[in-house]
Design brief:
By secondary structure, the protein is α+β, with helices and mostly antiparallel strands. It is 27% helix and 37% strand. The strands form six sheets. A six-stranded antiparallel β-barrel has the order 3-12-15-14-13-16. A four-stranded antiparallel β-sheet has the order 2-17-22-21, with no helix packed on it. A four-stranded antiparallel β-sheet has the order 4-11-9-6, with no helix packed on it. 18% of the residues are buried.
Length: 357
Amino acid sequence: MRKTELIAGILLVVSLCAGCGREEQAEERPPLVKTQKTEIASGLRESVYPGTVRGRYETELSFQTGGRIQQRNVQEGSVVRTGDVLMVIDARDAVQQAGQGDAQAAAALAELNLAQSDLARYSQLYAQDVISEAALDQYQTKYDAALAAYQNALAAAEQGHNVLSYTDLVAGADGVISSVLAEAGQVVAPGQTVMTLVQTGELEVEIQIPENHVADIAVGKQAMVSFWAMPGEVSGIVREIAPMADKVSRTYRVRISLPQPSAELRLGMTASVRFSDVQAGPGASACALPLSAIYQTGDAPKVWLVEHGEVHLREVEVQEFGDNQVLVRGLPAGAVVVTAGVHKLRENQKVRTEGDA
């Protein structure tokens, strides 16, 4: 009995020692840090422009036929779906036109049937040498003319039915009605804009750039966008730059796409678009870092550098501040700087970078 208890005790001690070894091994694993390599620059410039949230696709809707508006089913701000009937114009004239086309097609069909019967009958007489070939040609010509007239009548009747379908103005996509320019009882012409549909599936921010700064903006340039009604910032990308300046304001329209817009974003919201540019030059001696990289101890700002898998504090000189960036001196090009969690590190601590993870 004592021998059995002794063996059990030994196994328990061995298992506990093995567990402690695994815990110590896990605790010795260096922490993972976020880093950035320094690039020498000569200046940090930021430009901020006010903007407005717009839809990428804004469609001006109009009827393909004219008439008096009989019914308006939406108003400004209405959310619509594909296929919804937005407006209806009086269809009485279109109905009469469609009926007239059907009647003409029926009359043309009757003429065609008569011409076909005559051609068949006189073809038999020609085969019996009762009539001449010239007489047969006359009936063949009458049949060809009747066939052409029937085809023309069918096309006219189909056009009449198309006009009848144009009396309903239908939404071609999901979106929001941003403006209504016509009311019930108003007579509109074909192609006259009666409302505007903004597709909400893809929202953008529109800004105006002065002509002396438009050369600083290029398609694909990154931007940070903030909204007056919402906290924080989101990233954006310049999608479109107007080829010509506005005739009145002499500014260029620029559209900023939002790859990951917030669900709370609404059309017409006020936005602020910020561009950050780091200027490089032959005599440059500073580098741009995020503000989160600065480790402040007393009056001396410092940063953590990763060297041979360990972190070391290096004192720097702040040259210029931006909204989320800082321009500092005292670092060599290509140095690996810790950019997050700097207050949790200690001198000579071993760390892992993204490349080591």
